[in-house]
């Protein structure tokens, strides 16, 4: 009979309406719709387990019981397996090793995700644009580009971000922490992107090319500004006289004609 149950066969038949069910407990609950009897609130869900200890662990998801306590930080867990995984955050133990590059991981799930970087497997599909992604967390971040959700908030200025990494970078604008150092001149930067741009001043690399005349630039913002020489676009407007400019720097210089500002002083002494 057990084999037939795995095949999805419905062996339990209601004697009142002849409806068939694959589990006896489902039939018992169905019979109450005919008798009007209200069963005791014992069964929460209809999940089956091969071992009693698995059932006991599952029941804790309904009761909220967490009998297994971490001896380091007193955090509690419903299952011994979850406690074991948590303990690795204290011990640094990484028992799961990648057979391709020998990188080690604390959890099997993280190892499985990592293996996709070698296989190129992308099993997670965005339901909005059908983009295929390799990890569930990457899919979650991608979905925010559709929803506009920004769940990570700066505790200093309350600015919100879609990704924790972007929030971490932003926080450095408040702390002035600059962990990324140029190996050529030792100048430090708060963000890796700023360091990458700076390194081009040493290498002379200009990876951004104008599609009109093929002129190359080291930065995307420099390319954007230059493209306006082809399009004649002038998005920056003077609030005093409404004159428009293609670049913010040109607008700033123009504003001094209204303010009378003369910030640049000649330091050469004239002989009388």
Task: Describe the model.
This protein has 272 residues and is of the alpha+beta class. It is built from ten helices and 16 strands. Helices cover 42% and strands 12% of the residues. The strands form eight sheets. Strands 1-2 form a two-stranded antiparallel sheet. The relative contact order is 0.03. A hairpin with a 6-residue loop joins β15 and β16. The protein has helices spanning 2-6, 24-35, 52-63, 80-91, 108-119, 136-147, 164-175, 192-203, 220-231, 248-259, and strands at residues 12-13, 20-21, 68-69, 76-77, 96-97, 104-105, 124-125, 132-133, 152-153, 160-161, 180-181, 188-189, 208-209, 216-217, 236-237, 244-245.
Task: Give me some keywords for this one.
single chain, alpha+beta, Gastrula zinc finger protein XlCGF57.1, Znf_C2H2_type, elongated, 272 residues, two-stranded antiparallel ribbon, disordered N terminus, zinc ion binding
Provide a quick synopsis of the model.
The chain is an alpha+beta fold and 272 residues long. The chain has helices at 2-6, 24-35, 52-63, 80-91, 108-119, 136-147, 164-175, 192-203, 220-231, 248-259, and strands at 12-13, 20-21, 68-69, 76-77, 96-97, 104-105, 124-125, 132-133, 152-153, 160-161, 180-181, 188-189, 208-209, 216-217, 236-237, 244-245.
